[in-house]
Write a structure and sequence with these properties.
By secondary structure, this protein is an all-alpha fold. The protein folds into 2 domains: about 55 residues, no CATH class; about 60 residues. Helix content is about 65%, strand content about 0%. The protein has 4 helices and no strands. The chain is rod-shaped, with a radius of gyration of 35 Å. The N and C termini lie far apart (about 120 Å).
Length: about 120
């Protein structure tokens, strides 16, 4: 009539981790790492931005020798973007100067034509 289904957790079906006496971490600890990580992420979801800001400040404390290729690539990209923005700024300033000088010439010619018409 009634059947009793017993659901065993995965940890009971798998063999218990044997302690590794060479290192300080037993082998069975790694079974729970994913569960602990998920619980930690779920509990810290509301403070995600604060945690991110705190961790992003740590990269400036690391030595330059660590991931130097990545750092040099990032610095090259930053230098490229800054030089491109400076180039755009220079061309905008040149265009504004040319527009201003053109308006001055037009205004000067209109002023001279009005002054000669009054005579």
């Amino acid at each position: 009539m009634y059947s009793v289904e017993v659901v065993f957790p995965v940890t009971l079906l798998s063999p218990v981790g044997k302690k590794n006496f060479i290192s300080s971490t037993p082998c069975g600890v790694w079974m729970y790492l994913l569960d602990v990580a998920l619980l930690t992420v779920d509990s810290c979801r509301s403070t995600f931005s604060a945690t991110t800001l705190k961790l992003s400040g740590l990269k400036y404390l690391m030595p330059w020798s660590k991931k130097s290729l990545c750092n040099s690539t990032r610095h090259f990209a930053t230098l490229y973007n800054v030089s491109r923005r400076c180039s755009i700024l220079r061309s905008n300033q040149a265009a504004a100067f040319n527009l201003l000088s053109t308006k001055r010439r037009v205004f000067k010619s209109q002023y001279l034509s009005l002054a000669s018409a009054d005579r």
